[in-house]
Amino acid sequence: MANRFTNSRKRYSTKSSSNKRYSSKLGGVKRPKVIENEFEKVKRKKREYNSTHKDYLVKPDIFLFFGYPDIDSIYINIVIDQMAMAFINNYRTLKYFDDYTIAEIAKCFVVGPALNWVEQYFKDATALKALERVGEEMEREANGLPKQKPEIKYNMNKFIEDFEKKFKREDHEERIIIELDRLKQGNSTLEEYKLRFFNLVDLLDRSEKERVESSIVNCFKRNVHSRYTPVVSSFTTLEQIGDYHVIEPFHYDSD
Fold first, then answer.
1. pLDDT means per 10 residues in the chain (255 residues)?
2. DSSP 8-state class, residue 26
């Protein structure tokens, strides 16, 4: 598996949901009631929990992963990239890692079944053991002994590899292709369509993109407006799609 700690792709963020069911008048307009569903409630509570762990430098707008095969497993690469970047940023800042810190960072990105799996994976990385290690270091310092690096049982790369094996479906690439083929330009501009198109493409990692690039490009050529067909019909790479720009109206009627 490619080393995730070299991947610096830009990722999008998600917005947390309100926990309030309310209706109010603003400017004479009655606002609709907002009812939080179970998934939103779990995510909100997780974000509130994460906000108390500022020492781990985990951004508040991270993507939270449940790990349900038919719901959010399609976003597996997003959460993996976020975890990898958090590990990197924390190591650069703290200059220090132990099993407990690795486990606490990983837990910030998962909820539901995925959180249960992560907690079981790091079952030996407990707060008590971390405190015991701190006590041992204080005793060494009091006795004039040099500091000792903690023994680390859990490897960050190995954890991410195991996480991917657990939650990435075997048909991940096929599912992305299906979603890309469903995505039509409709009455959006070319740039709007390309933005949505590449948001889906970025659910694949680099090696996956290389394997199915021709299928991805064919999806684009099938679903873009026919007015662009004379140009895009010769495209064979994602780079060609990304570099293609036109001046156009705000929107078109659907083909």
1. 49 40 45 62 74 63 88 93 89 77 89 93 73 64 68 82 95 96 93 95 96 97 94 96 83 57
2. E
